[in-house]
Amino acid sequence: MAQSTGLAGFYRQTPGNDDLVCDGVSLTAIAASTGTPVYVYSAAVLRERYQVIDAAFGDYPHALHYALKANSTLAIARLMRALGSAVDANSVWEIEVARRAGFEPSQIVFTGVGKSPEELERAVALGVKAINVESGGELARLEAIAVRLGRIVRVAIRINPDIDAKSHPHISTGLKINKFGLPLDEARELVQTLTGRPSLALVAIHVHVGSQITSLDPLRRAAALAADVSLDLQRQGFPLEYVDLGGGLGVSYDGGAVPSAADYVGVLLGEVRRTSLPIVIEPGRVIAAPAGALLARVIDVKPRTATSDFIIIDAGMTELMRPALYDAFHRIEPVSAPATGDRHYEIVGPVCESTDVVGRDRMLPPLAAGDLVAIRDAGAYGAVMASNYNRRPMPAEVLVDGGEWRVIRRRQTIDDLLAQES
Ligand SMILES: Cc1ncc(COP(=O)(O)O)c(C=O)c1O
Known about the structure:
This protein is α/β, with parallel strands linked by helices. It has twelve helices and 21 strands. It is elongated and about 70 Å long. Bound molecules: pyridoxal-5'-phosphate. Pyridoxal-5'-phosphate binds next to helix 10.
């Protein structure tokens, strides 16, 4: 296997050699060995992205709970754990992945707008760090389980701050019209009931206003609100342990400017310091997105208009749903040719849906069947959202680490696909 050049992430080897590599390892070689489509992740980028956020807190007490929903492949979860991360799980199945990756219950916060009774019971029995509660009904169900199991359950109350995250409407969660959390008044009322409910221990206030947030203002306002409410509750004698500010920091998919980790953490500290409470954050995308690329091969090129062709690749909405789901933009580059060129292309997947467009209006060098392309910044909300539509198998996943690469999830086979059927 190729030796690393010591550079991190996806880059072109040397001037004049256009081969795109990951941490010095040839993507052409990986794709030749594994086939396509295949996700390739850079361990170096995952580490760097985690460490830069962690370091930005300086001495201030904090915990990063990596959001497994962004990418929960076991090897990635294990890598995060080795870095010292804790996790945010959004279902009992993510909790089980976290357990198998070696996380202790005390390192798991459990979020999610619709946790089933079975999910709540498992989380209570495990004794996770906190269950982030989204409604009065959920709190009552949780209390009943805690009483039945003779446990005291640690809860955080998720406030819906009615703040516009100004990201895509499908990934904004902090407005009143969104299904997440409790409006401030209701949250305050609910907290007051806790004094007479000994099975419930309030440990934190939680906010999360959306994902791919590229302006710090909504994050600052959400942090300010969480800090105000926490201070108020501390004054009333609630022994809060931390403030949970969720995730949401965006990444640059198109090369545009986004806030740095240092600026982001600075904003959070600026609001929360006055509570003297430790800060918990739940970053997902900002750590995992730039660490991954989806490699696909051109299956066909066919005319579209007088000046534009379709490029049909062997990855589509089944492997990377974001463009079809949110009209999301991902850079798409040939692996063995310059990143841009003078041919106008519409890059589409093989799935029988017209929405299966991976890249609109792209200017690339001439491409032909068999060429390899890399869909960049696909490490978050990529593999985890893959589906078997059209009976397409889940793609393989590869981790590049220290100049070596290995398959961390093999491609599904037709036997895997049919194993649960009779
Ligand atoms: C409660 C919660 N925490 C954390 C995250 C992770 O968000 P992101 O990947 O944008 O950092 C999400 C995702 O939307 C979420 O719903």
